[in-house]
Write a structure and sequence with these properties.
The structure holds two protein chains of two kinds. By secondary structure, chain A is α/β, with parallel strands linked by helices. Helices cover 46% and strands 15% of the residues of chain A. Chain A contains ten helices and eight strands. Chain A has an eight-stranded mixed β-sheet, sandwiched between helices. The longest helix of chain A is centred in the middle third of the chain and has 17 residues, at 179-195. Chain B contains eleven helices and eight strands. In chain B, strands 3-2-4-1-5-6-7-8 form an eight-stranded mixed β-sheet, sandwiched between helices. In chain B, helix 3 packs across helix 4 and helix 4 crosses helix 11 (286-294). Chain B is elongated, with a radius of gyration of 22 Å. Chain B starts with a helix and ends with a helix. Classes of the chains: A alpha/beta, B alpha/beta. The A-B interface holds A 17, 20-23, 25-26, 89-93, 120-123, 126-127, 129-131, 134, 175-178, 208, 210-215, 217, 235, 237-241, 244, 263 and B 33, 36-39, 41-43, 108-112, 139-143, 145-146, 148-150, 153, 194-196, 221, 223-228, 230-231, 248, 250-254, 256-257, 276. The structure holds guanosine-5'-triphosphate (2 copies) and magnesium ion (2 copies). Residues 113-114, 137, 143, 192 of chain B line the site of one magnesium ion.
């Protein structure tokens, strides 16, 4: 930002432009600008661009406090596996993100299982199987077109038998507007709990950083359908800033955990509020 | 809706003789808000609002017409106009059966290219063409298998050479195979890639130079936000696109990316994806998407 001096009209307009173009909603942008004005009020001396970045970070700090960076598969008290269900709309990066999280687990020596819960899309099972092999995780599948809930039920029984420590359940991409598919997801959650009380221990909603305002609808509908415990933002290695995350964190009590920054199993990072704010500020 | 907001605003302006800079100010703010909410790019929103203002200011309010309706009509008309194809400069999407057609698909990761490949094959088969799906995604796990299953489900042949052969070679061999096996249209599915990945963009240029496609589709996700202009511009500037398929329009994304992409590339949206099945493909209707964008 070529900003200097005070928080004048021109500076505010440039800030607005940067935030809006980063996919921060108009409402959240106004909220942030109002906070920045309040922070700057009474500061008489001219602001350097660095000062302005600090004021911005200060203004979004409360929103970004809604973060739970990282992934911690805490062993459940019953000694069973830590179960993570991964959900989200089509193409967001669920399957690839599971691969990345699986790698973290297997690298840490945890016995990991991947469950091919997408029984619908062409070659979805084969795709996850490749990742299971590459990351050294166990793999459970069912014939194409099988009932996903039934598969999860059986897979968790297997996981308990095998002494799996972490289980990732991949689900089919689904648009939140499709009520039958959302009902199916709620059913999968219920069935998982039937097999393992307390499971799924985490349900992570994967969001694509290139998504605009529709991400808010996705969070709203998915979290009304299943208990979403965390968010993951993928494809931040592109040019999209993922600013809608600020609007989401401001409205929902669901923390951001991890970010995807590429297509290989190593391309997973803990969410870093400072880096996120800097990238958005431009 | 925007229409309702206009009604509210103009109720206060009863008895006005014409649309003025002053009396449409509030309405223009609402238009700006609606378009940003719909994911239309920030700079394009600016351009759009100033064009509407230009058209509207000074217009006499037609006798008996509600000024809100009149302004809404101007907004809607301008939105449709901006998204419509331009007959003089567009390359129409048309395939000629029994003539060699080469169609290349490109776009960001997860946009829906492989799925669109099957849908498009199904569509042109109805026009009498004999498509051959070409598996050029040698990177994504089971991508070739995915295309094979897509083709298999449609009874359409899929040409692949595994993941160890460079895509350049794959398209060359595909063309040979097509000629020998009487298939007239190559539908080339490529790997998703970032427009800022130089190596991947060069690969795409290589495929384009080798096969000289008759039509290049940018496949873009309808829920894409402000970033839509960045990727679309790069793909168009560096590779060249002829038309766009906007996918996942069966969701509730407003689809402002349609306007942004058209505005920044000048290329028309030709198709929209409205589901995951091979039949879920429709022609793009600018008036329908305009209504959706305005909300
Ligand atoms: N550049 C980049 N690409 C990613 C990232 N995460 C996933 N992808 C790519 O996005 C595409 C879709 O990823 P998938 O893991 O298949 O997405 P999905 O949500 O499982 O898709 P569906 O199961 O079809 O709904 C693939 O090409 C991935 O390689 C990321 O962080 N960065
Ligand atoms: N609801 C809906 N889903 C779609 C549509 N088009 C594609 N999909 C889904 O979106 C996801 C991604 O589709 P793909 O065809 O694998 O996308 P891609 O662009 O080939 O992905 P990469 O090769 O990884 O870049 C899949 O789950 C598809 O079923 C559509 O129009 N509507
Ligand atoms: Mg998947
Ligand atoms: Mg693909």
């Amino acid at each position: 930002l070529g900003i200097s001096g005070k928080l004048d009209e021109e500076t505010i307009e440039e800030l607005e432009a940067a935030l809006l173009q980063g996919d921060v909603s108009a409402e959240t942008t106004q909220k942030i600008i109002a906070r920045m004005k309040a922070v700057v009020k009474g500061r008489d001396k001219d602001l350097t661009p660095e000062d302005l970045l600090d004021v911005f970070k200060e203004s979004v700090r409360e929103i970004l406090a809604n973060s739970a960076p990282g992934f911690e598969p805490v062993p459940p008290p019953d000694g069973g596996p830590y179960v993570v269900m991964v959900v989200g709309v089509n193409g967001a990066g669920k399957t690839t993100t599971i691969a990345k999280m699986a790698k973290r687990c297997t690298d840490a020596g945890l016995r990991t299982m991947l469950v091919a819960g997408d029984t619908f899309r062409a070659a979805a099972v084969e795709q996850l199987e490749v990742w299971a092999t590459r990351t050294g995780a166990d793999f459970v599948r069912a014939p194409h077109g099988s009932d996903a809930a039934a598969l999860c039920y059986d897979a968790l029984a297997k996981a308990r038998q095998r002494g799996s420590q972490v289980v990732f359940i991949d689900t089919a991409g689904r648009l939140h507007t499709k009520s039958t598919l959302m009902d199916e997801l709620a059913k999968i959650e219920r069935v998982i709990a039937k097999q393992l009380p307390g499971a799924p221990h985490e349900t992570l909603l994967v969001l694509d950083a290139t998504t605009g305002q529709n991400a808010l609808q996705q969070v709203k509908t998915f979290s009304a359908c299943v208990r979403v415990t965390g968010l993951i933002l993928t494809k931040l290695d592109g040019t999209a800033k993922g600013g809608i995350l600020l609007s989401i964190l401001d409205q929902y009590r669901i923390p951001i955990t991890l970010i995807g920054v590429g297509e290989s199993a190593a391309d997973l990072r803990d969410f870093d509020p400072d880096q996120f704010a800097m990238a958005l500020f431009g | 809706t925007l229409g309702d907001k206009f009604e509210g605003i103009f109720r206060k302006l009863r008895g006005q003789k014409s649309l003025s800079e002053d009396n449409i100010k509030e309405a223009m703010r609402e238009v700006r808000m609606a378009l940003l909410e719909a994911d239309v790019n920030y700079l394009i929103v600016k351009e759009f609002v100033s064009r509407v203002r230009e058209t509207a200011v000074g217009q006499e309010i037609v006798k008996g017409v509600d000024p809100a309706q009149q302004l809404f009509y101007i907004v809607h008309k301008e939105l449709v106009r901006m998204m419509e194809g331009e007959a003089e400069t567009d390359k129409p999407f048309a395939v000629q059966p029994a003539k060699e057609n080469n169609i290349m698909l490109l776009g960001l990761q997860g946009a829906g290219k492989t799925t669109f490949c099957g849908k498009l094959a199904r569509w042109i088969e109805k026009e009498g063409c004999k498509p051959l799906l070409v598996a050029c995604d040698v990177y994504r796990p089971a991508a070739i298998e995915q295309l094979k299953q897509v083709g298999g489900g449609l009874g359409i042949p899929v040409f692949e050479m595994g993941t160890e052969t460079p895509p350049l070679k794959i398209v060359q061999e595909a063309r040979k195979w097509a000629r020998e096996n009487h298939r007239d249209t190559l539908l080339i599915d490529t790997a998703g890639r970032l427009h800022i990945d130089e190596v991947k963009m060069e690969e795409l240029q290589g495929i384009r130079d080798t096969i000289k496609p008759d039509y290049v589709f940018l496949v873009a996700d309808a829920m894409t936000g402000q970033d839509a202009v960045n990727s679309a511009k790069s793909f168009n500037d560096e590779i060249g696109i002829d038309g766009v398929c906007l996918t996942k329009l069966d969701g509730d994304a407003r689809g402002g990316a349609a306007l942004s992409i058209k505005a920044v590339t000048g290329k028309p949206v030709v198709f929209v994806g409205v589901g995951e099945k091979p039949d879920d493909l429709e022609r793009f209707h600018p008036d329908r998407v305009a209504q959706r964008i305005l909300g």
